[in-house]
Design a protein that fits this description.
This protein is α+β, with helices and mostly antiparallel strands and 531 residues long. The protein is 35% helix and 19% strand. The chain folds into four domains: 97 residues, no CATH class; 212 residues, Ribonuclease H-like superfamily/Ribonuclease H (Nucleotidyltransferase, domain 5); 110 residues, Endonuclease III, domain 1 (Orthogonal Bundle); 39 residues. The protein contains 20 helices and 20 strands. A hairpin with a 5-residue loop joins strand 10 and strand 11. It comes from Lygus hesperus (Western plant bug).
């Protein structure tokens, strides 16, 4: 789906119109709609679209381009109806000429996408094949930039493109020779070789294959399917810096591992994955079952500490089966800055498989929670003046609530669905901390209207805590001051019953003189005359 006149469908608030004033030969004009070209427009429009279409499965939007996908036509029609209804209710219109319905393959953001994966488009490949030979540096930079846009599909381009990159060096005189022309034609051939990458599937095992050589570093991230076929998700390679060229082979292999992990961090972090390499000593040093060797170089120790943030198993492969080996021997040129190569901070993370509650659980239960669904509806359409009593705690925080990836957040705290509140309470009190500490932790992560009272009740009813908690602190005994004269202080109390009688006993603290009076009852009427 393609929205017509994307930004101009969004009305500008009165206070923002002055800042977008246009100066023309006919005077000053204030736009009433969001104009193209202002810096906040893309982010603001993207937020509007994300909020509008949130909660619909199979829907992705990038600015004014919306993709609705499903595994069957009936499911597609249901989702399409929901999307069109929301767009209609929001007053947004589509450019019907640019919309495509019921397609099994689409072109989106410069790539062709179908059920098999991501592919380079025929138009982009044809543009590279038809490109004339560059006549200056600017034309060469434009060509190389266009080729690099497809670099994720290509195992390597560096060995072929090296003569072209040499023309970009500082103070290099332009000289388009036979080597450059040969490299230019070879690039066109390479672009046609590998044009497909598989879709990432979170349920399949991830495999990172790395290799380091004298020329560069290479990495391939792939997934193995149930039928035994292994498909690549992306390729990456780079050349070595001058300092790295002096590394030992072991250090080069380690550098390739760190390069691959950083490059594909979003795929690897928080998940279990397989590291494949053809260097046995490297796998021994960085294997998860081995500690960091005390005799290892400082560089290796830093890298081992960095890799300890990831959960992986190691697998040795022979060189002739290591796909990354060729990548490292034909790396892509790489520009380095001063910050690159600096020591990485250690990151603490929670492994996804160890989480008692996952993001999917939160989204699933949020969609079932009637209260939160009403909150989400009001966040999108606006809050009414009067709401049900169970929604008033949310209404009081209306300005601070927002929707993020199908869950409700109060600031940075997650609004927990009713069905998961008990489980969250158990996790908060799992280490049997007191009320104050549990509340402090909860206030950093989660919220629901009665959370404080629920925490207090849970901690007070914890049998383990009650058995092990300390006895009440004994109060300090404070002795009476010694009276300096008689009748300065007297102590009075009733004694009895003795033989159905009570006795009012009074003792003077100074002289210890004792007086006792018989009484039939303890009422104030009988006590006052005796005093």
């Amino acid at each position: 789906l393609d929205l017509s006149q994307a930004y101009k469908q969004c009305e500008l608030e009165e206070g923002s119109r002055n800042y977008c004033t246009l100066t023309t030969m006919k005077g000053l004009f204030r736009p009433t709609r969001m104009p193209f070209g202002i810096s906040p427009a893309p982010g603001k429009f993207q937020k509007i679209i994300d909020t509008l279409l949130s909660g619909i499965e199979g829907v992705t939007a990038f600015l004014d381009d919306v993709v609705v996908g499903a595994s069957t036509y009936s499911e597609l029609n249901k989702r399409m109806t929901i999307v069109l209804d929301r767009l209609k209710n929001a007053g947004l219109t589509l450019s019907i000429k640019k919309c495509e319905f019921g397609k099994t393959s689409i072109e989106y953001l410069g790539f062709r996408i179908d059920k098999n994966g991501l592919h380079s488009t025929d138009s982009k490949v044809k543009a590279i094949l038809d490109a004339p030979s560059p006549t200056n540096i600017k034309e060469l930079q434009a060509f190389l930039g266009f080729v690099n846009y497809l670099s994720r599909f290509l195992p390597s381009l560096a060995s072929t493109m090296q003569p072209l990159y040499s023309l970009l060096k500082k103070d290099m005189k332009w000289n388009w020779n036979a080597d450059c022309d040969h490299a230019f034609q070879q690039v066109k051939k390479i672009v046609q070789t590998n044009r497909s990458l598989a879709h990432f599937n979170p349920s399949l095992p991830i495999r990172l294959t790395v290799d380091g050589s004298d020329k560069g570093l290479g990495a391939i991230i792939s997934q193995k399917y149930p039928n035994g076929e292994e498909k690549p998700l992306a390729f990456a390679s780079r050349s070595l810096t001058k300092a790295e060229q002096g590394y030992s082979q072991l250090d080069k292999e380690a550098a390739a591992l760190v390069f691959g992990v950083k490059k594909f961090h979003l795929y690897l972090f928080g998940r279990k994955w397989i590291l494949a390499n053809d260097n046995r000593p490297l796998l021994t040093i960085f294997g998860p079952k081995r500690g960091i060797p005390t005799c290892a170089a400082n560089r290796l120790q830093r890298w081992a500490l960095f890799l300890s943030n990831y959960s992986y198993t190691v697998e040795w492969v022979s060189s002739n089966k290591n796909s990354a080996d060729w990548l490292s021997r034909a790396p892509l040129p790489h520009e380095f800055n001063e910050e690159e190569g600096s020591e990485d901070p250690s990151v603490h993370y929670v492994f996804e498989g160890d989480l008692p509650l996952s993001y999917r659980d939160m989204v699933k239960e949020t969609k079932k929670d009637k209260i939160l669904q009403k909150v989400i509806m009001y966040l999108k359409l606006g809050w009414p003046d009067e709401v049900e009593s169970e929604l008033k705690p949310y209404q009081r925080r209306a300005e601070e609530l927002h929707l993020e990836k199908d869950v409700v957040l109060w600031g940075y705290r997650l609004a927990v669905p009713t069905t998961l509140q008990t489980q969250v309470l158990e996790e908060l009190h799992a280490s049997h901390m007191g009320i104050c500490k549990v509340k402090a932790i909860a206030r950093s992560y989660v919220w629901w209207p009665s959370i404080d009272g629920d925490i207090e009740n849970r901690v007070r009813s914890c049998e383990a805590c009650n058995k092990t908690k300390d006895n009440p602190v004994k109060s300090t005994l404070v002795p009476w001051e010694w009276p300096t004269q008689p009748w300065q202080r007297v102590h009075i109390d009733y004694l009895g019953p003795l033989a159905n009688r009570y006795y009012l006993v009074m003792i003077d603290s100074h002289s210890k003189w004792l007086e006792a009076f018989e009484s039939k009852s303890l009422t104030s009427e009988r006590t006052i005359p005796l005093l």
